[in-house]
Amino acid sequence: MRTYQKSIDEAAKHATQRELQHIKSDAERDAAKAANLAKSSFLATMSHELRTPLSAIIGYSELLQLQAQHFKHDNLLPDIEKIWASGKHLLALINDVLDLSKIEAGKMDLYLESIDMNSLLDDVVSSARPLIEKNKNNFVIQPLNELGMLYSDSTKVRQILLNLLSNAAKFTDAGTITLAVERKHAQAGDQFHFRVMDTGIGITSEQLTQLFQPFTQADASTTRKYGGTGLGLVLSRRLSELLGGTISVKSTIEVGSCFEFSLPATQAGQPAPSIEPHLDAIVPNNQPSLMNDTLGTVLVIDDDPLARDVITRYLVSQGLHVETASTGAEGIRRARELQPIAITLDVVMREMDGWEVLTTLKADPAISHIPVIMLTIVDEQRKGFALGVADYLVKPVDGMQLVALLNQYRKVSNAGLALPHGEILLAEDDPQLRSMLARLLSDAGWAVAEAATGPAALESATKHRPDMIILDLMLPEMDGIQVIDALRAASAGKDVPIVVITAKDLTALERNHLNSSVAYILQKGDYRLDDLLGMVYELMSGHFQNQYQQHPEAAHD
Amino acid sequence: MTKILVVEDDIANREMLARRLQWEGYQVVTAENGAQAIVRAIEEHPDLILMDMGLPVMNGWQATHRIKSTSVTRLIPIIALTAFVLSSDREKCLNVGCDDYETKPVDFARLIAKMRGLLADDLSIDVSAVPVA
């Protein structure tokens, strides 16, 4: 019996220990999670806090340069330029440090999209050219074939390539920097191979081993001579790993270096980009859709049934009403009939091509105002804009881009926006002040009921319950406090938010009394209209506040 | 003279932007928060608004949404200024009605080019399609 009891005790003790262990490890995990969160939010805040004054420094130094030139103080220019360059350098470092910490905290998000590789490279080349030519270097781009689409994070790919090119530029003087890109087909998926070759100072095999370690440049003296912290390469490697790629380097001292960056054309688990529009990948959209079906009909003119279907499905998923036409002639007829908010128009169609359709649309005053978005495989942007195209997308159509464009046209006709609306009762006896406030409020989109006396205010509020009340305390016949008390006693006016405006100094008693029953008290002549408007938005639009949740970092912006 | 409303809560950056725009020949009015921006937009009728997105009292997204849905101000072009560089942020700015988008710290030459584009367009896009409010 005793043994039995003992083993029960033992078991209980073990159980308790296990439980304790469990609780302890839970607590540790939570603490680690919290610490990690705190760290990344600290970093986000810090980087913002650092960037804000820095952007003023950079901005003012640019202004000073202009002023020095204008007022012929050219002797000051080199010094101002140094302030500017140091500011820019510091900014780049802050950005790199933030990026590295994000990667380390596992907080670096990828924004995957289909990217046209050739246009991405055009962009990179034009950004890198001034850096490279600064040191009297030749920039050679090996002939690029049609490279097709890449499914990846364009900002990060661009960042890696720019880092490699600017690194090459930094360590090469009056030499040549070459960029070569090719797409290699493989069973496991296509790969892009980028090579950045320079004829610079080169890296010894000893230095090579340290190259991708943070804050270790090839040689401490390089820091003095070339500047930088060596973060660029570390960051590039980490970013490339994040994208499923690799970076390697070969170098001969005094001859030059070659950095090779390989990147899979698609991301694991993601659809391979093809000529097929990749619309499915981004539906449903996690952004709140502001589209409203009572508002938007979009006319899709395309002779390819598959393309029509894909675009239609996407736009419908965004809450738009879509009508289609399979020929140009039908499209023009339907445009007249439907008066859509926008038209998407395929360029290459049998019978009447997109350009002809466009010319006809733009020549008819009844429909010439409807924005036309041209969808095309070939890049003929200039021709499109010359003929009056509102916008222009290259096939395969990026659904997000199309919706963003349509949003622009939709927003002009504002009925589609889900806005807070409501009625404000404005009780103020001074006619001039009343009409000024009423105009301000109605200009800001609210319905306004006006009252000039206490009883009038009370009557208006009981007859038709307003969504909020702005109340002057010194009203004739019945003062504001009496109005409030009467309202709060009545069931209808019990919880209407009230902002009180008062010209007199309130006694402590009055203030206490009001504090318990009104939302805000403003002193006449001492408040600003935008404070009042801010309060109105706050009180009127609880749901509105939630509609655009701030970006977590936005609070510090 | 072309009038620009600069909405920015940080005083150094607000004044810096104002000074630089004045140097370029623009008339500048300023606001420190979203609610003030709405009032200035109504009172001053600027030709264009530069709107910081992270603002106190009312943030830039809310203020933009409001300005773009208020009859007397909705045709004023707005360029969002934000420290965020993600495409989803861009999307969010466009969704509330911003006409364009610039990241902070501002590349002034690029900003001026965008401003000129929007000011030159002068809403020729689609004014006739606007239903009379």
Give a structural overview.
The complex is a heterodimer of chains A (557) and B (133). Chain A is an alpha/beta fold and 557 residues long. Helix content of chain A is 48%, strand content 17%. Chain A is built from 18 helices and 17 strands. The longest helix of chain A has 69 residues, at 2-70. The radius of gyration of chain A is 33 Å and the shape is extended. With 133 residues, chain B is of the alpha/beta class. In chain B, 41% of the residues lie in helices and 18% in strands. Chain B has a five-stranded parallel sheet with strand order 2-1-3-4-5, sandwiched between helices. In chain B, helix 2 (34-44) packs parallel to helix 3 (60-67). Classes of the chains: A alpha/beta (557), B alpha/beta (133). At the A-B interface, helix 1, helix 12 and helix 17 of A face helix 1, helix 2, helix 3 and helix 4 of B.
Question: Sheet bearing the most strands of chain A, described?
Answer: 5 strands, mixed
> Overall mean pLDDT score of chain B?
83
Flag low-confidence runs of chain B.
Answer: 123-133
Indicate the multimeric state: heterodimer
**Beta-strand fraction estimate of chain A:** 15-25%
- Give the SSE order of chain B as H and E letters: EHEHEHEHEH
- List how many beta strands of chain A DSSP finds: 17
Shape of chain A: extended
Please give the radius of gyration of chain A in angstroms: 33 Å
Helix content class of chain A: 40-55%
Characterize this entry briefly:
The complex is a heterodimer of chains A (557) and B (133). With 557 residues, chain A is of the alpha/beta class.
Write a concise keyword list for the protein shown above.
heterodimer, A: 557 residues, alpha/beta, five-stranded parallel sheet, disordered C terminus, B: alpha/beta, 5 strands, globular
